[in-house]
Amino acid sequence: MASFTDFLFAPPTPVSLPILGSDQRFPVHRVYCIGRNYGDHVREMGGDVKRSSPVFFMKPADALWLDGAVPYPGATTELHHEVEMVVALGSGGRDIASADALACVHAYGVGLDLTRRDLQNRAKADGAPWDSAKGFDASAPVSALTPASVCGHPLHAALALEVNGTPRQQVDIGEMIWALPEIIHELSKLWTLQPGDVIFTGTPAGVGPLLRGDRFHAALGDIARLEGHIA
Ligand code: MN
Q1: Which of 131, 114, 113 is nearest to 202 (CA)?
Q2: Which of 140, 152, 173, 209 has its CA 20 to 30 A from that of 224?
Q3: How far apart are the CA of 34 and the centre of ligand 1, in A?
Q4: CA of 188 to the centre of ligand 1 (A)
């Protein structure tokens, strides 16, 4: 068993998220994301609404970004916003039944699945992985978390994004193709879910560009809000 004195250099600081009303922080393990989870967004991207199997991808835990100034990433000319409900797991497991899934959820938040759309479109055309389109530095601005013990487990809530005061995306989370218990069930068939896992649950229609200087305001009902700008 290695002690900390054995590290070649200082290990990275654990990624963690603030919890509203608490001095404790939520330590992050992994960030899972589901794609194509609202029908109107699937259609705007030119896809067919299918329920055969969900599309999952990951972002690095340290892509989570809490500073209000979000750096415009390099290597793209088409940075897109995707507002999403964010879910933080307090427990996990494998092959979790849908009926047991919500008991794993500790807290809810709202975030942006920032996307280099030009790189994603190229990756789709080439049949290549999405990592450089989705998992770049600061690609997951996220709010503070609200515990389910405070807000319950919302079946319906308004998920909304304004950019420079203009509405861009709005939906009720009840319209998700894969509801949260199904997302957790499906993820747990593919990975062993752990306390500290964070899930981005998909975006509705209205994705579009963010430019330097744009101000964004995202909200999940009165549960969570996220404000910032592109620097
Ligand atoms: Mn997304």
Answers
A1: 113
A2: 209
A3: 6
A4: 19
Residue 9 lies inside a defined structural domain of this protein: no
CA 202 to ligand 1 centroid distance, Å: 5
The answer as to whether 7 is a domain residue is: no
What values do phi and psi take at 229, rounded to 5? -145, 160
Task: Note whether residue 20 is domain-resident.
Answer: yes
Neighbours of ion ligand 1 (CB under 5 A): 82, 113, 203
Cα 3 to averaged position of ligand 1 atoms, centre (Å): 39
At 134 the pLDDT is: 98
For residue 2, pLDDT beyond 80: no
Determine the distance separating the centroid of ligand 1 and the alpha carbon of 170, expressed in angstroms: 14
Amino acid at 166: T
The domain spanning residue 139 has which CATH number? Answer: 3.90.850.10
CB 15 within 8 A of CB 61: yes
When divided into structural domains, the chain yields a total of 1
Residue 36: inside a domain: yes
C-alpha of residue 18 to centroid of ligand 1, in Å: 22
31-35/198-200 β-pairing: parallel
pLDDT in tens, 72-115: 999 999 999 999 999 999 999 999 999 999 999 999 999 999 99
Residue numbers of the domain that contains 223: 14-230
From 5, 31, 3, select the one nearest 17 (Cα to Cα): 31
